[in-house]
Amino acid sequence: MEIVKNLHSYFAYVVLLILVLAVVNAFSGWFGKKEFRFEKDLRVSLFALILSHIQLVIGLILFFISANGLNAIRTLGMGGLNPASRLLAVEHPFINILAIALITIGWSRHKKKADDTAKFKSIAIFYGLGLLFILSRIPWGQWL
Questions:
Q1: SS3 assignment, position 139
Q2: pTM higher than 0.85, yes or no?
Q3: Where are the alpha helices (DSSP H) in 32-137?
């Protein structure tokens, strides 16, 4: 259990770094009217998508085996959770699932666009919203 928890915590740094890089790259390409290139732009966005999905899977495993996840809800009930427990058991998983859904939508939408600016715009908006959602529900007190 401790291994999965540490993996989820430390891998989050990598995911956040590549996600920030993908968002900055997308905004730069969108506002700079750049060409969407396979070698850089597609790969950065794809790596952000893949790593965020891997992080989600690790987080879901942790949710089901951890005392702070599903077991806390079963033991205390939804009304018995204090704010810190509610963050770990309900808000963090729910919001991060929504964030990964937004990132996935951004990836899917960009593939349907023919215009390079539209590709960057789709990734910038959806990956950016996903990043904001993730940052809003990180348990900062326990993570840093």
A1: coil
A2: yes
A3: 43-65, 70-76, 83-86, 92-112, 116-136
